[in-house]
Write the C-alpha cells for this entry.
Amino acid sequence: MSAADMGYDAVMAKKGEVMKSSVGIDYDAFKTGPVSFDYEGMMTKTGYDLERVFEIQSETAVGNTPLVELKNITALVRAVSNPGKGGRIFVKDEAQNPSGSFKDRRASVSIYEAWKKGYPGVSAATSGNYGAAVASQAAKKGLPAIIVQEAFDGRGIAQPEIAEKTRACEAYGAEVIRLSVGPELFYVFLLILIETGYFNASLYTPFSVLGIETLGFEVAKEIKEREGRFPDVVVATHAGGGNVTGTGRGLIKAGASDTKLVAASVDLSGLHMASDTDFNRKSFTTGHTGFGIPFATWPDRADVPKNAARPLRYMDRFVTVTQGEVFYITQALAELEGMERGPAGNTSLAAAFAVAREMGEDEIVVVQETEYTGAGKHPIAQLNLAKRMGIEVRRGNPKENVPGVRIVIPEDPSQIKAVDVDLERLRKSYYKNALESIEDREKITDDEIRFLAEDTKTTPDCVREAVGLK
C-alpha cells in the first residue's frame, strides 16, 4: 500500500469496505429505506441464539455471576424514605467475570466469531473496560489483540482510570496504542484493521449486544427463582447504549416484559467528550451523558454502518446522578456491604438508591452490574486529578455540583436524587437526526414511520405528530 493510500482521506473513504471485511456483516443487505433497516433480521442472521450464547460464555467462564441482596444499603434507603417506602436492592456482581466487568459478556461472542471465521487477531477502539474484556477473551482463544485508546490530553496528562485499563489490557497480553484526545482515533483504528486484517470487535455489532442478553435473562430468571416473581425495576448504566439494549432484550426473552428498565448516567452536561480542555475535567470515562445522550439520539453515529445498540427501543426511564453522588455510594457499598467496586456500576447503584426511595418495601430493584476497581478507578485517584485540574471538591448538597467546575459529595444519603431526562425530548432529537437526509418529509413511507416508532418505543401516530406529518 502506497503512502497516498494510507492518507487520512484515502483511509476514511474505505470505511464501508473495511467495516464489511473486518466484521463480516453486509449491512446493506438489511437496509429497507433511507433510514430504516431490518433490525431483528440483522440480529438473527448472526446465527447466535440465546442458548448458543450461553454455551459460548460458559466455555470461557463468563456470566452466571452472583446475585447479591444489599440488605444494609436497603436499610439505609428506608432510613431516609417516607414510611412504607424503600424497595429491596439487589446487585448482579459482574465484577466476578474473568476481566472484572459485564464487558466480558460483550466480548465473548465477538471473539468467538473472530476465532470461528479464522481472523488472525482482533482489535477494538475503546478506553473502557471493554478493552480488557477483549484482551482477556482473545487470550483464552489464543488470538492476538490490539486495543486503541484515547488516553491523554494535549499536555500528555493521562486519565488515571484509562491508565488502569491500559495496565489490565497489557496484563492480558494485548498491544495497546495510546493516543491523545482527538479525531485521529478512528483513522488509526481503520489503519490497524487494513494493515492486520484483524476482526473489528466493535462495541456496536450484533455479536456485542447478543452477548449482553444473557445478563438481562439471568437477572430476571434468578429473581424469579428466589422471589417468585420478576423484578419491578432494573437499573442499567447507560453510555453507548449496548448495556441498556442487551439487558432489555434479555429481560424480554426471559418473559419479564413488565419489568421497568431504567437507564442511568452520570451528569456531565456542558463537557465535550472530544475537547482537549474537557478531557480530564470529567472524573468518569464511561457511563456518562457525554456518551449517553448522543448515542440515544443518534445510535448510527457508531463505528459500524448500523448500530445494534438502540437504547430508546428498550428504556422506560432515563435518569442522571452527579459524580459526587456516585463517589458517595461507592464508599457506602464498601463500608456497608463489604464490596469495593468501580464507578460504572456504582452509577446505577446511586440511581437505584434514589429510585428505591420511590418504591414500596415489597418491591424489588436490581442493579444489573458491578465492575472491578483498581488504583486508577478508585475515587481517590479521580478526585486527586480533579483537584489538579482546578476543580473544587467538597462536601455539601449535590444540587450544587457543576460538571468540570465543582464536585459536591453528599453530606447525607437523603441528598441522593435521580434527575429524570425527558424521553420525549430525546425522541424528537432522534427523529431530527434520523430524517436529516430526507428533504421532503411528505415522501417518508409508512415503513419508515413504523421503524422510527419501534426504534423509540412509541407509536406511528406519535412519530407522525412529532415530525409534523398528518
The longest strand covers residues 145-152. The chain is about 45% helix and 15% strand. The chain has a mean pLDDT of 94.
